[in-house]
Design brief:
The complex is a heterodimer. Chain A is of the alpha/beta class. Helix content of chain A is 30%, strand content 28%. In chain A, strands 6-7-8-3-9-10 form a six-stranded mixed β-sheet, with helices on both faces. In chain A, strand 4 and strand 5 form a beta hairpin. In chain A, helix 2 (103-112) runs parallel beside helix 4, helix 4 (149-162) runs parallel beside helix 5 (179-193) and helix 6 packs across helix 7 (253-265). Chain A is globular, with a radius of gyration of 18 Å. Chain A starts with a strand and ends with a helix. By secondary structure, chain B is mainly α. Chain B has one domain: MetI-like (MetI-like fold). Helices cover 80% and strands 0% of the residues of chain B. Chain B contains twelve helices and no strands. Chain B has helices spanning 4-25, 33-45, 47-77, 84-92, 102-108, 112-137, 141-149, 154-164, 167-191, 198-207, 211-239, 242-249. In chain B, helix 2 packs across helix 11 (211-239), helix 4 (84-92) crosses helix 6 and helix 7 (141-149) crosses helix 8 (154-164). The two termini of chain B are 13 Å apart. The chains are: A alpha/beta, B mainly alpha. Chains A and B meet through strand 6 of A and helix 7 and helix 12 of B.
Chain lengths: 266, 250
């Protein structure tokens, strides 16, 4: 499998979060590189896996620029500037959309704030293309409350993909979905990740199997003995391990073994 | 789940049963439904009624429009910390009684029409502001976060989430508060009887212990209120179709 790791596109540097005396996050360091594969538009899919209540949501908010860490910083872009609110797309666990807008108008508003100045005709054509590609064509004139949870999630992800943000953070994207819908979400995320060379999906989840199956890199978040606050305890380079970009990976024995081992690490 | 037609049938049967019992077992101080019904027709046929009806309706609508503008302004301004105490104070004004303020308002206004309008506004604005603020307070924080991830500035976020995004709820608040305004109108007209209105008709009939007329006017006021409630509800679903989906989901 030929690939190259190019420049850093995101770096968390000594990120810590404290509320009063309580340390939530401690010394979090990791970076994401632009992965390049010849003749392919290959984005990045990174997972941060940790058990419930460990501080994943806090890290999620720091990575999105919504909250400031107590120490350290999250740097993004070619110039490695500190992340600002609005620079990273966010798909929350309950798929927030504007309920007073139809699906078409929810997608239009994302394009309206894209930094490329599309004409009205361009916007219509882009929305049509994306809706076709992601099986949403028949729902464009419906309102969010008329869609199922899985469909709303698709619209929510698509909405973020239509902005000019290259980074999209997904909070527990597999939570509360049945197996069939999860397969569709995985398919959707893989499609989104290949829309642009710099497209980067950061999945924050406690679902080990599905997160591993979709990612090229996995960071494990856990507590260490006698130390307060969660940190990154391990990095798994799934490309090196030969487990990335394989749609059938879940069927492989070594993958299932890794999933079983991971359960003890988080 | 019981169908709407079955509910309507049940309501109709129950009304018939209650009215029949009232007609047969009544006869004391409270006039029978038959007498009230006859009186309603007599009142509606008289030219006086329509003058009084339009007087009350125009005052209510005028009061509603002005109250809506003022209450929305106070509610939106309350998002700026400087104006928050003002909004809090207006909310607390629900506990002020109008009767104690009539003298003050009489001094401050030049005629009966202005007096009634001022009293009506003072009566309904605190209820409007209370409802609007609870709508604003119940907005999910994640909607604001969504706006920021879509690159919207603060004004656009305010427009999208609080103004346009909650227009259906503003309409609903208006519908609910129309009932308060309609109930208050008779009281306000009773306090200043110079220009007539349904409230004035009611007070005069009470004065002469003309109970058939009192009950007839009460019933007319009730039916007009229910009619407007229905119209405003239907208008809300027509203007904001997604609200119908929300209600059905609940």
């Amino acid at each position: 499998m030929t690939y190259q790791k190019h420049d850093e596109i995101l770096r968390a540097e000594k990120v810590g979060l404290t509320y009063g005396d309580k340390v939530i996050l401690r010394d979090i360091n990791f970076s994401i590189h632009n992965i390049v594969r010849p003749d392919l538009c290959q984005g990045q899919v990174v997972s941060l896996i940790g058990r419930s209540g460990i501080g994943k949501t806090q890290l999620f908010k720091i990575l999105s620029g919504m909250n400031k860490p107590t120490t350290g910083a999250v740097l993004i872009g070619a110039d490695m500037h500190e992340v600002k609110e609005g620079e990273v797309g966010v798909v929350s666990q309950n798929y927030i959309l504007f309920n007073h807008r139809s699906i078409r108008r929810n997608l239009e508003i994302a394009l309206a704030h894209n930094d490329k100045n599309y004409t009205e005709a361009d916007k219509k054509s882009i929305i049509k293309d994306y809706a076709d590609k992601f099986n949403l064509s028949e729902h464009l004139d419906k309102y969010p409350l008329q869609l199922s949870g899985g469909q709303r999630q698709r619209v929510s992800i698509l909405q973020q993909a239509l902005t000019s943000n290259k980074f999209i953070l997904l909070d527990e994207p597999f939570s509360g979905l049945d197996a069939l819908v999860i397969d569709k979400v995985v398919d959707l995320l893989l499609k989104i990740s290949t829309l642009d060379e710099l497209s980067t999906l950061i999945i924050i989840s406690h679902d080990i199997e599905n997160s591993l199956a979709i990612s090229d890199t996995v960071f494990i978040m856990a507590n260490q003995p006698n130390k307060q606050g969660a940190t990154i305890t391990e990095k798994l380079d799934l490309i090196e391990l030969g487990m990335a970009w394989n749609p059938e990976i879940k069927k492989e024995h070594k993958f299932q073994e890794m999933v079983a081992q991971m359960k003890y690490k988080i | 789940m019981v169908s709407k037609s079955k509910i309507m049938l049940l309501v109709f049967i129950q009304i018939i049963v209650v009215l029949s019992l009232w007609q047969w077992l009544g006869g004391g101080l409270i006039p029978s439904p038959g007498k009230i019904g006859v009186r309603i027709f007599e009142i509606i046929k008289s030219g006086d009624f329509w003058d009084n009806f339009f007087m009350s309706l125009s005052l209510t609508l005028k009061g509603m429009v002005i109250a809506l503008v003022i209450a929305l302004a106070i509610s939106y301004l309350s998002l700026i910390p400087f104006f928050r105490p003002l909004a809090k104070f207006v909310i607390k004004c629900r506990y002020l009684t109008l009767t104690g303020l009539i003298f003050l308002f009489t001094l401050l206004t030049s005629d009966g029409s202005q007096l009634k309008l001022s009293l009506l506004l003072f009566g309904i604005i605190p209820f409007f502001v209370t409802s609007f603020l609870s709508v604003i307070d119940s907005i999910d924080k994640q909607e604001f976060e969504l706006c920021s991830t879509l690159g919207m500035n603060k004004w656009r976020t305010l427009w999208e989430v609080i103004i346009v995004g909650r227009l259906d709820q503003v309409f609903e608040v208006m519908r609910q508060n129309f009932a308060i305004a309609w109930m208050m109108i008779t009281m306000v007209e009773g306090l200043s009887m110079s220009e007539g209105g349904l409230g004035t008709m009611l007070i005069k009939s009470n004065k002469y212990i003309d109970l058939s007329t009192v009950f007839a006017i009460l019933l007319i006021i009730f039916l007009i209120g229910v009619f407007f409630d229905y119209i405003l509800g239907a208008l809300r679903f027509w203007l904001f179709p997604y609200t119908k989906i929300q209600l059905r989901d609940k």
